[in-house]
Design a protein that fits this description.
Length: about 450
């Protein structure tokens, strides 16, 4: 019987890798986890967590304005970028410490190094040159921003990683992209007082979301003063004579900014990982191809999280890791359920969504009932803010099952989590109708829309 140095070797210290390593070690397995940067991965170190802290920071300007309508006299306020960055860094340090502490308590060996595959059961520890073996190897190295290397002047631009560590807050920024990252950072920088332009090649931002959410958010962002240029792309970035950047577009515009940010998607972080040496198959973007149990074509090697290019969300990576441990060590083969994943865009206002958009549902079902409400939330009445909320339910007319729920407005992300449970349970519109409202709340609209706003038959609104 072949002896291995480890039962499980994990490459990558993000949310998925850490969860798998900690659980396996807690079951008494000999586990090592290698990370070349910091533990916590994209989400904790340079993604979801610092981004949400920046979102909170960017909202206070509006909070101060709204307070006056409620009788508060708010004095002169000012914002200090360096203080925000320093406080954010302290919180990230604390969270990374918790990740390390959890691994150590479980008995996992932490290796502060890059690790590369050299075969189906072997790896090279780059800092020491040592080769080790493992019965099972898990690749959980996540993704990285697409550098858009074909764009002249791309080296002058920043990505989401660098946005968290800028030495000073720019006076003006131009952001390329129309997905989560671009939209969220456009709102963050604008809320912090930066002159912000968002440029996107498509006809509307957030291409995979329900059109009412997309148009509603677009309208609110422009009302706040964010410039959104659709059907345009950057053709060249150059530094002007005054040291500022000039971003040229395909339609002849020249945008002058202190920073240009590229948020044009992410790529699996598999370059130079030794996948070819190990015989692991990859896809067009470099993603690791896995089966329903997160196993590659090589029996001993598995992959979870963004590196597989399935669903690029932190909770998904964690769920995939937990299923893997069930499969490998608990005699309970488990495949991750990627259906009906609730998600949120932490824009201002937020979007919370789960299930099918109206357009997607119309392609799958013969007849739909659409319930839609648009209203000014109660909080805005005294503040004088004109911002609107939109709530929408997509219902299969045949069995009345709710197949999509979408919210645009404050705390929409919190609502999406609860709606995710509801849709996962297969609730019908009749279940919504039988549920008493919590009054006065914005979310009560979800259970008080008794009559369809309109119907869709064979893809056409009637």
């Amino acid at each position: 019987m072949t002896e291995f140095d480890y039962d499980l070797f994990v490459i990558g210290g993000g949310s998925g890798g850490v969860r798998a390593a900690r659980l396996a070690a807690g079951l008494g397995k000999k586990v090592a986890i290698a990370e070349e940067y910091r533990f916590g991965g994209t989400c904790v170190i340079r993604g979801c967590v610092p981004k949400k802290l920046f979102v909170y920071a960017s909202q206070f300007q509006e909070h101060f304005e709204d307070a006056r309508g409620y009788g508060w006299s708010v004095g002169e306020s000012s914002f200090d970028w360096a203080t925000l960055v320093a406080n954010k860094d302290r919180e990230i340090d604390r969270l990374e410490g918790l990740y390390r502490h959890g691994l150590e308590n479980a008995g996992a060996e932490i290796i502060a190094s890059r690790a590369e595959l050299t075969g189906p059961n072997s790896l090279l520890i780059k800092t020491t040159g040592q080769e080790v073996t493992a019965r099972h190897i898990l690749v959980a190295v996540g993704g990285r921003p697409n550098p858009h290397a074909s764009l002249p002047g791309h080296e002058l631009c920043i990505h989401s990683n660098e946005a968290f560590h800028l030495k000073e807050l720019p006076k003006a920024i131009a952001i390329a992209g129309g997905g989560y990252i671009a939209v969220e950072f456009a709102n963050i920088f604008h809320g912090l007082g930066v002159d912000t332009t968002l440029i996107y090649r498509g006809k509307e931002i957030l291409s995979r979301f329900d059109m009412d959410m997309r148009r509603g958010l677009h309208k609110e962002m422009e009302a706040k003063g964010i410039r959104i240029l659709c059907h345009e792309v950057f053709s060249k970035i150059e530094r002007g004579p005054d040291g500022r950047l000039v971003a040229h577009t395909n339609n002849g515009k020249a945008l002058v900014a202190d920073q240009v940010m590229l948020a044009l998607g992410r790529d699996p972080n598999t370059e130079g990982l030794g996948l070819k040496a190990a015989g692991v198959e990859t896809g067009q973007k470099g993603e690791i191809i896995v089966d329903e149990y997160s196993r590659t074509n090589v029996e001993s090697i598995y992959a979870v999280g963004d590196v597989t290019n399935r669903v690029e969300l932190t909770p998904v990576a964690i769920h995939e890791a937990m299923c893997l441990i069930d499969t490998l060590y608990r005699d309970n083969p488990s495949s991750p359920d990627h259906d009906l994943i609730a998600t949120a865009v932490f824009s201002q206002p937020e979007i919370g969504t789960v299930g099918l958009s109206e357009d997607e549902a119309a392609k799958r079902y013969d007849e739909l009932e659409i319930y839609r409400a648009e209203f000014r939330p109660m909080k805005a009445t005294l503040s004088g803010r004109q911002e609107k909320m939109i709530m929408k339910l997509v219902v299969n007319a045949e069995d009345r099952k709710v197949i999509g729920a979408h919210v645009l407005g404050h705390e929409a992300g919190e609502m999406a989590q609860i709606l995710g449970i509801v849709l996962k349970a297969g609730c019908t519109k009749d279940d919504f109708d039988r549920t008493m409202a919590v009054h006065p709340t914005a979310s009560e609209e979800l259970v008080t829309m008794y009559q369809p706003t309109y119907r869709v038959k064979n893809g056409e609104r009637v």
